[in-house]
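#struct-pred

JT: dropping the chains for the assembly here, can someone run the whole complex?
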Amino acid sequence: MTFGMQPDAAIVLVGGIMGSVPFGGSISAILLNTPGVAPNAATCFDGYPLARKGKAGMAIGAAATASALGGLIGVGVMLAVIPIAKAIVLLFGPPEFFMLGVLGLSAIAVSTGGKLIRGLISGGFGLILAFVGFDEVGGGLRYTAGIEYLWDGVQLVPVLTGLFAIAEMINLMTVGGRVATGASAASLGNVMAGVKAVFNNVTTLLRSSAIGTFIGAVPGIGGTVASFLSYTVTRQISKDPESFGHGNIQGVIASEAANNAKDGGSLIPTLAFGIPGSAEMAVFLGVLVLHGFEPGPRLLLDHEDVIYGLIMALSLSCVFASVVGLGLSRYLVMVTRTDVHYLAPVVISIALIGAYALRSSFGDVVAAMVFGVIGYFMVRFDYPRITLVIALVLGGIVERSYHQSLMMSGGSHDIFFTRPVADVLLTLIAISLALPMLRLLTRRFRG
Amino acid sequence: MLGVLIGAYAYESSARALPVLVAWTTIILLLLEIMVQARTALVSRIQSLFQIKENDLEPQRVPIRRALVYAVGWPGFLVMLIAVIGILPAVLMYIFLSLKLVAGKTVQRALIVALAVTGLSWLLFEWVMSYQLYRGMLINGLSL
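RK: done, full complex below.
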């Protein structure tokens, strides 16, 4: 799309898209339990239950505000940290990436809210799906069963589309009715209540933005880990953790703030080293190359105007997207009041078109439908779908980093325990797994 | 999962390391889940240890046959239509038949909604983005 554009217009377009997609994905996450992109999956936890209770407007208001503020905070932190960014990013090698991936996987254990074993089983299946396809370490094919479509592995977009959009619509078709089971208040007051909730939970906003910025600064980890970690941390330190997953507005704020803040963080390795901090940054670097710029550490020095143009576009688009979302929220909420017999075939059709549009592959359409069926039965038998997605996203990173680490250490596992940053991350993993049990024991001790 | 485990031993040691670990772990968890469902005394202690809660959602009393029709049959019909006649005609036909046969809406309403969605999809993808949607086996032949 940017091929015929002037470089500055192309940069602004890319920045605008990057800044607005995270919030856009939260709309479908809240209204249809279908994340627009993988990082929005954490928003489903509490956004969709709010929509079911007729508080979709409140959830959208909170998501819009948290997205805008989180994005601005992420960019602000990035600008402040850029001078020392190189030193920070160089602390992370394959052992640290492995630990970060495991930390993200450990979020599965604590995000399932009482369905721990089923969540871990789903996560196990997700990891196995991540191993399908070309093995980057060994160089061969695994679990493809002779199917050429699987040589590139299981693609995330058809899985997300099927597990959430299609499965949710199938589920609604079998049950009937509407998304919102309670009285739906699509009034401005309802939306403003969500906006106010963000300012009433400033600590959650700031903490989540910090987590998002930090995780975003680590190349390759991505927004999924950022939003899930932020959600998990918020839930764990909450005085009322049982309310999470049933419509706690803090859950929406935590995931959306982190999701948008990560864009600022992902600019850090991109500008410091020319290494894309995320898939979106990789696209951005591709746009730069297309328009005659050379990615690398000197990008910020030689093309300051381009970079600051991107930063401005990113910041403004966060805000504009949220303003547009707030303005349209009253109409968007009507989706939850639409008869499922109209909603389901339309959403399923559009979802399959979207799955095809990814790579012009009919195989993606079939894959989306297969995962739609799998997702429906996961809903029916109460197996969390989100843990499967987390594991699918992180499985490749974890395996690659694990083998790279062993290559660095000559096969010794000590490398995971003898590096300071890896030790810190290992401690965080232990805390995140132990904290729920410690809270349970403390509660029992107190009687 | 057993198939994954057996298949893993056909690969090199580096390629099978994590799949074997994950497969064994998942098999153990599946056995644990089966025990939980069996509701023995041992299971009660495991449940309290892992803070497993009873499913607090209302159980869906949708008959399995109806679930299979909606989950497998009807969406499968859409995929088959897409494969044969292409995305846009399939979407038109699927939405029309869903609204007319499944939802019991009038022919006019079903047709209006189907034409609106198909028209918007054509407008957005084929006209605005110049992106050709799948044409189907009848025109293109089948290729994944």
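JT: nice. The helical segments of chain B are 2-8, 13-38, 41-49, 64-85, 87-102, 107-128. Residues 13-38 of chain B form the longest helix (26 residues).
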